[in-house]
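Weekly sync notes, structure subgroup
Attendees: PM, AL, DS (notes)

Item 1: joint prediction request from the bench team. They want all two components modeled as one assembly rather than separately. Inputs as received:
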Amino acid sequence: MNKKQVIDVLNEIGLLLELKEELPFKARAYYNAARALELEDADIDELVSQNKLRQVKGIGEAIAKKITELVTTGHLEYYERLKKEVPPGLIEMLKIPGLGPKRIQTLYKKLGITTIGELEYACIENRLLELEGFGKRTQEKILKGIEYVKRYQGQFLYSDAKAAAEQLLIEIGDVIDGISVISIAGGIRRCKEITKDIDIVAASENQQEVIDAFVALPSVESIIASGDTKASVHLRSGINTDLRVVSNLQYPYALHHFTGSKEHNTAMRHRAKRMGIKINEYGLFKNEELIKCSDEHDFFKALGLQYIPPEIRENMGEIEAAEEGKLPDLLKSSDIKGIFHVHTAYSDGSATITDMVNAAFAKGYEYIGISDHSQSAFYAGGLKPEALMRQWREIDELNESLRARKVFKGIECDILLDGSLDYDDELLSKFDFVIASVHSHFNLSKEQMTARILRAIANPYVTMIGHVSGRLLLARQGYECDMDAIIEACIEYGVALELNANPHRLDLDWRYCGLAKSKGVKIVINPDAHNVDGLNDMEYGIGIARKGWLEAKDVLNSMNLDEIIAYLAAR
DNA sequence: GCCGTTTTCGGCCCGACTGTTTTCAGTCG
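Output from the run, pasted for the record:
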């Protein structure tokens, strides 16, 4: 059992304990242990075999014993017993806004409700009204919540949520007076690949008026909650939005607070407390006295920290690094000098090569790599060798007319079932670059899939591995593969890993960027564009790269044209 | 269940809003 699975089990035990109405702090202990494990660099097998679990802060005797059982036997008696005591539908119910462990427990005990379907039916029959602490409004709210969960699963792609949030800011700016400064906060500001709502923080000296105007906006479908300083609404677009309005003086603290993450905030508060400082959304307080900050830079400075960019506020080492002045100089859009992985009408793209090239150069890129699909990708109009010859002639002609710019000939080459590539080596050797990607047979075992990808990495003509996990966010789980082994192989063979910037993929996951970076694997941020607009997706890839602590030197396509020509020639 | 400049017991981050209460528990972020 790997680390990720152990973490999942610990978190689920926490949920189960809450649902069982155990002591709340016991549940929290399991969450803390899961989090501690997540932040721990050491290998889980090593921690267990060398008896080092107890040295991890947050893991005590009881949990260490459970983790050991889990890792050595793949099984945990305590967990299995808990699962038998709590129907799985109860965990599902936690997704319904307004329902937490306590109420779910009541519904289960008093009405015998074990699934969302049963709950919906019970609401329709007005059966919740007979319960103490429940009323008509609560029942209506739960019904609405069920509808929301069924309709959207309550989750949105970063790109969709960000677009909706920016649109909303424009609407607010047009309609609402008296706001001195406003910002998107929450997961969108942190560039999380998936988000469940929009968080907005605004500063105003007329808080109530701003709240009232906000909940009356045309794009607001219904109001979930509305108080003096805070409102929650369902937007017509289907996304929940929280607005928090504070005074001008409170704004920097509130912006930090509502940007999160929750884990980052908790760690910041613990740290501040040790310094004798209290943090809340209204300020930093030492002995009840406000420490004045005019922006977030001041805020971190007051706590003895470097400014921590929002993307990396996940309590994954950023606070410790900021303490030592060792935060990375995160990648910027302007660091990117060119792009690879662009499809054209030769395969499943919709634009001509000339259109894509012109659009890329208009964005200031020095080079663009064209990479249509290879011959086995029937579904995507993969290119037979004859079509490739035509494409190469077209690219050669284009290049003749260019100065200080270049179009590279590439391919997104399918990795076949056995790990071989979709053209012979003779043909592969003629490309400027080769992206090797898995597009079929997703259901292999982890071992088979890893071996398949490792074989592709070992091919001397492969420049980079495309969308390494194959995931489609909110739609398809990535296939199982051993990322540690893949990263090791990439170093050995000098192959780069793609960070696919398409908002449905954002694959390599940012959680692996640090590992790749520490091992010295180059990351290449690619748009995987299928039309001219697709080039704009680079923005999302760069955000995720920042989230993964990447700097310009870690990213292949931050090389300028001369450097990249030399790099590709040396491959 | 974990932890310790509050160290083997008694805490465990902090505050807004809602609904159902008549002073507060539950949920959320």
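Discussion: The longest strand of chain A covers residues 406-414.
Action: AL to compare against the crosslinking data before next sync.
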